[in-house]
């Protein structure tokens, strides 16, 4: 209620003040109309006396001031016209100094002084100096600030700057600068003094009021930045030292922070660069409670943008050794401000790194130096838990990736992984994903084992559990995305030199093997295919490559692959391991390494026997084995017989009869391979087909026993197509009568069931097969003659 009452009282006092201004302004206007100077001065002084109040807050006082300001503009017009009041401006300047109270006197003096300068009857510097010194008579902070603000406003267009009509022999730019600096100094003192007024209990209110008044002080610096003729030399020798002296000596947190911010914003970038040492020295002298990081960050951001604006200015940064000065200043600030939170230090490092990457993109040693300083600071904290600080560290690590568009450059930074070590597990993964995305986006190729080692240390959060983190807690979709990213990364590792490529594969394998059972099924396959790509490269070069340390031979690579897939098979993930064994067997066959190919097949059969129990998985696996074995021609008779015997045996032992049938007739291709060097054992191929036919017949009988009908004839038609294939390929053991008999069997099965009941049934597959036979008959020639022997 007290606060509410205070607001109501303030509104009442403001209304009274405005009413007083309006009342006296009315009589002043009457006097103006009558050109009565005496009455004008009397009522204008009474009107301005309303500004003597101490009851209003800065915001309310501003409302009152603006009412008086509007009236003063009309008063100034009156003073300019000597014909209306009949006094020379010099005498008028003397006359208004006799006003009874100092505040109205100074407002009137400033108004007449403005006219005095415009008349050019006296040097503007003398009038300005007189006004700025006489304003010291008003020492109440709020009243004094608004009075000096009025002085600055009415004198702004009358400063003797270059190009101004008031510049002359007696008036120089230095006079204009001196006036603004003096006014700024006095205003800052008044502004700072507000905090010392009243009891400490109203400190928060005072801070709020001071915040409302700060622009009045800052306008002086804006004017300094706009004065024509303030060159670098004057700025360096006069303006900046005087302003900084006031900033440092005022020992006020709010004033120091705001004024440093103003300096950085209002003066040109090139001036900041040439006075960098002076500016940074002032930053280290600010009060410990001043948020220096924001000041330095703003300064570095401006300099960074200046460097990016034109390549022509970069040499200036080198001349002044900008990086060394900024780096030293930031180090001092962080060391002296012990209470600075870790996020503040990280923000400074990010700004310094941004500056460095723009100004000195070729100086990786500078980048590494910043990262090293970051490591030192992070090492002083037991554990980085601040989310904002973590975000800044990610920004710090991301900056080199974005700048260089090449992870290889980042890998040369020795402190890069040391910074990553301070991230928590979740953020470490985020950063690792950013690194991989950068590699993919820029199509970067990591081509040496040393760089791969560093890279996998950086992304270790994705390839193994950190600090005992349980992968079961991870979201499955996120986990799969992470592991797929690692898998894609492995394909980006390449080197034309086989010896180096083998080293890369060994480094990757070393890291991946620590990944745990959930990760291996994602990461082992790309590693295997990368190694197989190297095997085929060696094979195309026609021999082994031997280096000083590592022998890059297909045989050695296959040994590594065998050990790698063996780990995968124990995960357990037997179906995937079996596929990889078969891929390796085919590659070994291409290299004419029969023992290696046989060993891979042996491992595949062991997995099939011992690990794959699901019937559907067994069907898929046996077809993969048969298909791979059919394509391989490296085996001698004995080894091939052993493997084909195993394949046909497992085919016949599948759980379901249809699966048995299909696997067995697929085995017929193991004995008749349609290429120049392929095996051509027509008799054993026929035996497979007959065995498949018996199994199909048994399947029909079982279907009849369980369902009361023989069911579709699809298996018979599939076997018929195999007969036709081998007949067409020239297998002498497949005769037209065999095909004809099978067609008749299918027709019989389609026309009646086991109870002798005749039924109409059509099988599209069988119809298409017969159409094919007729088509071949019509072709004529050798093929046509061959098919003519088949009677439909």
TrEMBL record:
Gene Ontology biological-process entries: protein transport; retrograde transport, endosome to Golgi
Membrane topology label: Peripheral membrane protein
Keyword field: Cytoplasm, Endosome, Golgi apparatus, Membrane, Protein transport, Transport
Subcellular location per the Swiss-Prot or TrEMBL entry: Cytoplasm; Endosome membrane; Golgi apparatus, trans-Golgi network membrane; Prevacuolar compartment membrane
InterPro entries reported in the protein's UniProt record: ARM-type_fold, Vps35, Vps35_C
Keyword Protein transport: yes
Cellular component aspect of the GO annotation: cytosol; endosome membrane; Golgi apparatus; retromer, cargo-selective complex
Top-level taxonomic group: Eukaryota
Pfam families: Vps35
Family affiliation: Belongs to the VPS35 family.
Role this protein plays: Plays a role in vesicular protein sorting.
Designated name of the protein: Vacuolar protein sorting-associated protein 35
């Amino acid at each position: 209620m007290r606060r509410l009452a205070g607001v109501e009282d303030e509104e009442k006092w403001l209304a009274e003040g405005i009413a007083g201004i309006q009342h006296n302004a009315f009589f002043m206007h009457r006097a103006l109309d009558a050109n009565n100077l005496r009455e004008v001065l009397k009522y204008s002084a009474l009107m301005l006396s309303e500004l003597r109040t101490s009851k209003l807050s800065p915001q309310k006082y501003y409302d009152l001031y603006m009412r008086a300001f509007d009236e003063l503009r009309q008063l100034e017009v009156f003073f300019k016209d000597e014909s209306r009041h009949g006094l020379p401006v010099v005498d008028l300047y003397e006359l208004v100094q006799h006003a009874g109270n100092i505040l109205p006197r100074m407002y009137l003096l400033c108004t007449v002084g403005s006219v005095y300068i415009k008349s050019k009857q006296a040097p503007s510097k003398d009038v300005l100096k007189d006004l700025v010194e006489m304003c010291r008579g008003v020492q109440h902070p709020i009243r004094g600030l608004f009075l000096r603000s009025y002085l600055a406003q009415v004198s702004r267009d009358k400063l003797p700057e270059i190009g101004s009509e008031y510049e002359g022999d007696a008036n120089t730019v230095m006079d204009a600068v001196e006036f603004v600096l003096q006014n700024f100094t006095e205003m800052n003192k008044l502004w700072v003094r507000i905090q010392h007024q009243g009891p400490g209990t109203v400190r928060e209110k005072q801070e709020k009021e001071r915040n409302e008044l700060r622009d009045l002080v800052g306008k002086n610096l804006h004017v300094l930045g706009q004065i024509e003729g303030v060159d670098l030399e004057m700025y360096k020798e006069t303006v900046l030292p005087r302003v900084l002296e006031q900033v440092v000596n005022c020992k006020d947190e709010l004033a120091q922070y705001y004024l440093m911010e103003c300096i950085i914003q209002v003066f040109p970038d090139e001036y900041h660069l040439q006075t960098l040492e002076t500016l940074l020295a002032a930053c280290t002298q600010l009060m410990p409670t001043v948020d220096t990081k924001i000041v330095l960050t703003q300064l570095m951001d401006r300099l960074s943008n200046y460097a990016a604006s034109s390549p022509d200015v970069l040499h200036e940064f080198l001349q002044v050794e900008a990086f060394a000065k900024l780096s030293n200043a930031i180090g001092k600030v962080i060391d002296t401000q012990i209470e600075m939170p870790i996020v503040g230090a990280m923000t400074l490092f990010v700004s310094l790194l941004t500056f460095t990457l723009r100004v000195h993109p070729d100086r990786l040693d500078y980048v590494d130096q910043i990262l090293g300083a970051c490591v030192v600071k992070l090492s002083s904290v037991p554990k980085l838990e601040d989310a904002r600080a973590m975000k800044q560290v990610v920004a710090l690590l991301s900056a080199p990736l974005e700048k260089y568009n090449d992870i290889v450059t980042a890998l040369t930074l020795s402190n890069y992984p040391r910074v990553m070590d301070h991230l928590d597990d979740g953020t470490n993964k985020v950063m690792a994903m950013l690194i991989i995305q950068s590699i993919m986006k820029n199509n970067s190729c990591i081509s040496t084992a040393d760089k791969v080692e560093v890279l996998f240390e950086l992304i270790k959060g994705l390839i193994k559990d950190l600090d005992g983190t349980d992968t079961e807690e991870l979201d499955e979709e996120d986990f799969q995305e992470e592991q797929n990213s690692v898998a894609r990364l492995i394909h980006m590792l390449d080197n034309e030199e086989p010896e180096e490529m083998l080293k890369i594969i060994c480094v990757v394998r070393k890291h991946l093997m620590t990944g745990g059972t959930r990760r291996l099924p994602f990461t082992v396959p790309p590693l295997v295919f990368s190694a197989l790509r190297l095997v085929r490269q060696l094979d195309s070069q026609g021999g082994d490559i031997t280096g000083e340390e590592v022998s890059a031979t297909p045989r050695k690579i296959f040994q590594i692959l065998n050990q790698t897939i063996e780990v995968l098979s124990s995960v357990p993930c037997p179906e995937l391991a079996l596929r990889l064994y078969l891929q390796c067997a085919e590659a070994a066959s291409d290299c004419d390494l029969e023992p290696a190919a046989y060993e891979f097949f042996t491992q595949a059969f062991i997995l099939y026997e011992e690990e794959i129990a699901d019937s559907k998985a067994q069907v898929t696996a046996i077809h993969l084995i048969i298909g791979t074995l059919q394509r391989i021609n490296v085996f001698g008779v004995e080894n091939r017989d052993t493997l084909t015997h195993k394949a046909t045996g497992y085919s016949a032992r599948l759980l379901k009869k249809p699966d048995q049938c299909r696997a067995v007739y697929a085995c017929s291709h193991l004995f008749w391979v349609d290429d120049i060097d392929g095996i051509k054992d027509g008799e054993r191929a026929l035996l497979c087909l007959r065995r498949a036919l018996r199994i199909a017949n048994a399947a029909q009988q079982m279907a009849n026993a369980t369902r009361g009908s023989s069911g579709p004839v699809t298996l018979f038609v599939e076997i018929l197509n195999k007969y036709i294939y081998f007949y067409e390929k020239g297998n002498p053991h497949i005769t037209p009568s065999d095909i004809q008999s099978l067609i008749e069997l299918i027709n019989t099965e389609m026309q009646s069931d086991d109870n002798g009941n005749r039924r109409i049934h059509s099988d599209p597959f069988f119809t298409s097969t017969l159409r094919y036979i007729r088509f071949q008959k019509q072709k004529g020639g050798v093929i046509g003659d061959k098919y003519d022997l088949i009677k439909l």
